[in-house]
Structure formats: C-alpha cells, structure tokens
Design a protein that fits this description.
alpha+beta, Aspartate Aminotransferase, domain 1, Aspartate Aminotransferase, domain 2, Aminopeptidase, 37% helix
Amino acid sequence: MAQIKHNNFRDTVDKVITEAKAEGIVHLRAEDRQHTGRWLTVQGKACYHFGNTGYLGLEQNNRIKLGAMQALLRYGTQFPLSKTYISHPLYEELEEKLQLLFKNPVIITKNSTLGHLAVIPTVVRDEDAVILDHQVHWSVQNAAQLLKVRGIPVQLVRHNNLEMLETLIQKLSSKVSKIWYMADGVYSMFGDYAPVKALLALTKKYPQLYLYFDDVHGMSWRGANGMGYVLSQLGTLPEHVLVFGTLSKSFGASGSVLICSNKKFYNQIKNFGGPLTFSAQLEPSALGAAIASANIHLSDEIYRLQEALNNRIAYFNQQLVMAHLPLIARNSSPVFYIGTGLPATGYFLVKRLMEAGIYVNLGLFPAVPAKNTGLRITLSNHNAFDDIDQLVEQLISNYDIALMATDNSRSRVGKAFRMDFVDGKPFATTNQDLQFKEFKSIAETDATHWNTTLGKFNMLTYDGLAYLEQSFTQNQEPEHNWRFWYIQIVDDANCPVLMTFLTESLWKNDMLAPASVSKLLEHQRKRNPYLQTSRVLSLGCLFTEGNHLYLNEEHQQVTLALKQLLEYIENLAQTRKVTMTVLRDFDLNYNWSKAILDQGYIPIDMPDSCVLLDLHHKIEADYTQYLSKRSQKHFKKDIEPYLSLVKSNVVQRVSSANIKVYYELYLQVQRKNYGLNTFTYPLEAFEVLRSHPNWECILLKAVEDERLLGVMFCYKNYSGVYVPSLIGMDYKYLEVFKTYRQLLYQTILRARKLNMKQIDFGMSANFEKRKLGAAVLPKQAFVQTDDHFFLEELEMMRTGHSG
C-alpha cells in the first residue's frame, strides 16, 4: 500500500484563519474601558456594534448586573465542588424559575458545549443512530463524534434537506432502535430556521425518529416568556424532543439549559451526564445574574424587549429592500447575512466599514464555503434606529466600491449563492488588449505556444495531451469519459501570458483521504460503485501530476490574466454544475497563492511530489556515488543483492496481447493503492499508449525463468523530462525480487541512457524514491465548493467509521 501524506481539514482551517488574521479581520481586541453594547472600539476606532449576539441587550441590564454582584459578595467567586455531591444554594431557585419559564423540567449546564457532551453520549444508546444537519453547531457535531467510538452510526444530511433525511431514516430504520436528528433552531450564520413543524410531522410518520435541537440563537427574543424559537413552534414539548437553550447571549447571563419532558432521559442525564459530574458548576455571580434575568423573562417586560427588537429587525429588513443589497436569507431573526462571494471582497468591505465606524463580523470558511463569504450582521436592542441608518448608508456607499476593487460583481455574487442579484452599476472594463482563447481540443491550439510553455512539464506536451484525449473519450464507463478545455491568454503581440488546461471528470471523494476511509468506502462500493463520487472541474487531470499552469511572470498583465482565468473557471464550474473545483499542484510558497485564495478557494495539502533533478549532470557510471551515505547503505542492502536475479528491457511498441498482460499487473497495484484512491484507468488508455511514440515500457523479468515481475509505463518529454506514470507488478514475487525498488532503479538507468534532465516520479512511496536520490517537494491545491458538505462528511469518516 502506498504511503502518502494526506490533507488534514484542521490544517486547511488554520491556513484560512491565518490569512484572515493577516488581513486584520479576526483575532481583534476590544479596547473600550467600559461597554454599553452600542459601541465597540477596535484599533483605536469607535464603531457602532453590529456583531453582538446579546440580542435583547440584557447583558447590560442593571438588575442583572446587580444580581451577579450580590451573589458574588454573598457566596464568593466560585463554589468548587461537583454538583453531583451538592449544588450551590442558588441552583434550586434558578431551576424553579426556569421550569416556570419553559413549562418543563430543566437541567442547567456550565455552557452549551459541555452540555452537549453531557447529554448526547448519555441519551444516545449503542443500538441507536444519529443524523446531523451539516450546518448544526460545532458543539453538537463534536459531542456526536464521541459516539463513533461505541460503533454508533453518525451521518450528515444537507442543510434542512427533509427529502435526504427521510431517505436516510428509511435506510436506517430496520438496523437501529432510535434515530436521532440533530439541528439548530436558528442557524447562526444566515439566521435561517429549522423546519420544526415539518420535522415534528416526520416523527409521527417514523416513531423511531427523535429530535435534538440547539436553540441558543433562538432564545429570549422569541416565544412566550422568551422560551425560544423551537418551543414556540412545538407548543407542547413531546418526550421524543430535547431542546437546548442558553443562559448567555440574549438571556444576558451565562450557562445553558436542557429542556426535557422525558423522565427517563432526565434522570439518566441528571445521575451521570459526563461533564455534569466532573466539571465545575456555574459561578455564584452567573447564578445570580441568571435568576435576575429569569425574573425579567417571567414578567411582561420580556414582551416589550421582544417588540423593541422585532421593530429593529423589521426596519433593517425594509432598509435592505430599498437599498437592493444582496441579503441571503430574508426572515424575522436578528441575524442577517449580506453576501460578498469572494473573500477578497469581504476583507475589503469589512475594513472599509470599520474605517467608517461600523463593526460587523465576516462569515468565513469553515463556517461557510469560501466562495460564500459575506457580512454577518446581528441586531440588538443596543442599536438605535439612527445606528441602523448609518449601517445601511455605509453599506450602500461601500458595497459596490468593494466589488469593483476586487473585480467582483453582484451577478457573480448571485451565482455563488445561486440567487439572482443584478448589477446596479456599470463596471469598468479591465480588458487591456489581452486575448482570451478557449479550445475544446489540443488539436485546435497553437502547438508551438503549447510546447514552449506548459509542454515542458511532465507529460503535458501537445502529443501527450492528444494521447489523453484519445484515451479518455468515447468510453463506456462514466469515470473514463473526460471533458477537456484548453486556455491560452496572449497579449496583442500574440505573446503567451497564461496557458493551462482543465478537465471535468468523476472523482472519488476520498481520493486524498486516509487509507482506512477508502477501505471502508471500497467495501460499500461493491454494492454502489459510485458512492461518494463527484463531478470535479480540475486544473490538469487525474492522469497528470505537477505544474498545470504556465504564467509569464515577467509580463506586466500577468495578474489580469490570472483573474480572467479564475473568473472563467468559476463560470464554467457553474455552467457544468460540478461539485468541486480543484486547482493543483502548487508549491507551498506559490507566488500567486493569495490571489487564488481571494477568489474563494481554500488551500489543502496534496501528497508530496518526488522529482529526481539534474540527472544530466550525474554522468559517472556508478550512480550510487550521487547518493547520501545512508542511501548508499540502503542501495547495498535492498537493491544491489537483487540485481543479479532480474533483468530489464525496454519495449517501445507493445503487442495487443502483451498490453493486456501488463494491464492486469497494473490492476494488481491499483486495487491495493488505498493511499491515493482513484478510479482505475481503462484498458483503452493502455491500448493507445502501446504504439505511441512518446511512451515506452520498462519490463522487469526474473533471470532464472523469464517470469514477468513488473512493468513501468514511461512517457518521454523531449524537453528532458522522463515520466514513469504507471506501474504494474505481480504481487506474488514482490518481496522475493524487491520488484518495486528494482523498477525504480531501472527507470533511473533508462533516463540516464536517454540523457534526460529529470525524472518526475510523482506521488506516493516517498521513502523509496528519496533513497534513490529524489527530492520530495511538498504540494498544495486550492479547492472551491458550493458547500462543504462532503468535505465535512469525509472528515467525520476520518475521525471514525460512520457506518
């Protein structure tokens, strides 16, 4: 099995947040000596605060502050004892008031994250299954991860997709006892709602279905006595529905609360709910504040506060309609999302607003897909109507400026969100006599331009791409039929500024996932061959590796050419309705990384690439002298002793009968290579290469009886690059003859004989290639998706089997 470096989702998130931090968008510090909720001082600038999730403004209420202070003075800073043994004196009073408020039994937790960790592993049994809305809060998803250790199936469904949910319920119903669906009541990015009533109807159709809601963003500002959005929709809380609310955010204190009418669940959680047993209980000041807030909730004052917020929400909605700003979800929640599409536009706009005295949050990956970046605006009762007018005025003044400054447009934003936003103003054209040329076949391109630019790399010559077209069109299986696009951007003197090609093809979603994930999926694919596969638009193709983008770095219009290409790819991806766009394979410190990231891509780690450089300078007969001392020892131990057992010869024209034999050896390797999991290439591709002038086969045989041990399929790029693209081996003899190492060494000998400058060994088996002198080059790709549902699904599988 190939040993290979895989991308880690957390590394991708780290890179994105690091970029946002460098832009001055996140990890900022409030600089105020005192907070009122209306203002926030950031980087020396006093700003109207439109990032507050204390929607009713209760965190600044004097009675709640006084409640916290009095409890602090009476009881101290904390009550350092597990609540399982004894509760703080104020707990009983708070629980009584919350039970009146929610009209159901409650359990108070330190915060919602610890609350989910306490409740979910307790109520979900080993014979149950869990389905997560893929936009449910991280704290719910994190708690659900613990279930997989117990073998409990945990799966994702697309956001608010009841059809997908019902299909999964039907699939699981005969295999498990209870099926838990977990969702947010009000989602924190777009401010949209869970379809609570429709979900309740689904539980009547499927009695196995239990519902679990995180309603922390729906609390206080909605429902009788501020019981929250979910409970306001349910009316009476059924025993098969659990609801989490918050005592922070709009409640104005801290902590969280589980509302549960099921006595069995209630007692189980109360008796042993993980963090409830082993974590500290709420501080006395938090209990005092929560009691004071509960008193307000149980009075008519809560309705005046709700009405004040609703008036602001209605006013802002009205202003946005008149301003024709691209609001993504129009509803009655205090959370608003104005799309910018590109991260570059979002960065620019947030900074312009801060300069103008307006603070808003930026919705970024992984909270939203990178190309769905936007302004996340929250309203609270701290915001005066004049403040809202200022916000709208600055949005109108700066939104189109941000679009123009980042080569964006409203229609482009609309495409990113699959909505229709019409450009309100004409945009300046940036065409400066660059000619953008698109071709559907390499035969239509300028061969000289191609071979002197991109054709110098790997097997990307004019002839090499003609081979790929011939091999991957008009085949029977969908994974063997690719679409090709060739892009040439030239200036008015016909000088190439940018050259590249793209393919659309079917990928396995787990191509770069750990081998354990691919093994699991391959087992499932025996029943469903196209499970977890997607149509992908890619720079280059699945057959090639290395540099797929030529940029004339010296040309003064190279930046413009790159922007034109990225916008073309974005439009093509939308036209073709692909799941994902992948730009690969780039060095980690690629000069144009920021320009690509600003266009809504996220970086992911690719497997390292192995290249043997400066081969034409290594002219001495004894190749081992160019190896390190350690590698020389490896050679003498693992390669040299077997040289007398094998012999090699090069075949440039292979018979049809023999190519079928070689193909079977290739399949042996492919079926074991879970580390880089792709579809097998069709026999037709091998039939084409057997008589192609640029292809040759290095055969490895046993000296004793001429047994065929393995074959290396190599492409000769006459710029001096030798490309061993594919390998086939008979695994019965792999260890006896050390076939893989022998083929690598014979490839080097052949490339030297041809006076090649370098060998592109490609991905996987880095250790073996490095021992023969290859350099290991870290690579990255840039990925764009409409949503990151399947990325999250694979990440969930990576951290444990999902059943």
